[in-house]
Amino acid sequence: VRRAALYSNRNTNAIGLRIKGDALTIMALDQDTDKSFREILFVDHDGKDGTIAFNGNYLRDMLGAIQGDKARISFVAENRGAIITDDSDRRYFSILMPIAADFDAVT
Q1: What residues have CB less than 8 Å from 86, skipping those under 6 apart?
Q2: How many Å apart are CA 77 and CA 80, to the nearest integer?
Q3: For residue 43, which of 72, 73, 83, 101 sits 20 to 30 Å off, Cα-Cα?
Q4: What is the mean pLDDT of each run of 10 residues along the chain (107 residues)?
Q5: What pLDDT was estimated at residue 26?
Q6: How many CB atoms lie under 10 A from the CB of residue 11?
């Protein structure tokens, strides 16, 4: 997420997360400078495929507060809030609202 933030638009700081099967694609796009970022991570996934975008600063802060090795991001739709939890500390959870962003240009 920190690397993706370097390529995100300075106004929105948008970071996209696309889950398809066990592949999580982290995306960022700055249309002003035509820079883009795309990285694929393999994750445990037990839901529907989908794409959601967040303000990268908020996402980074919430993931940075997790003490364990695994985080869980749960969402049901791209326009509904996501719940972020720490698998090693069931007391920690955060709710992060998504933002509207288009990552179709990120290849």
Answers
A1: 65, 66, 67, 68, 70, 71, 72, 92, 93
A2: 5
A3: 101
A4: 87 91 92 86 90 93 90 89 91 92 72
A5: 95
A6: 8
Is 16 in contact with 53 (CB distance < 8 Å)? yes
pLDDT of residue 57: 93
Q: What is the 3-state secondary structure (H, E, C) of the chain?
A: CHHHHCCCCCCCCEEEEEEECCEEEEEEEECCCCEEEEEEEECCCCCCCEEEEEEHHHHHHHHHCCCCCCEEEECCCCCCCEEEEECCEEEEEEEECCCCCCCCCCC
Instruction: Report d(CA 37, CA 26) in Å as an integer.
Output: 8
Q: Please give the angle made by the CA atoms of 83, 61 and 77, to the nearest 5 degrees.
A: 30
Q: Across-strand partners of 23?
A: 20, 42
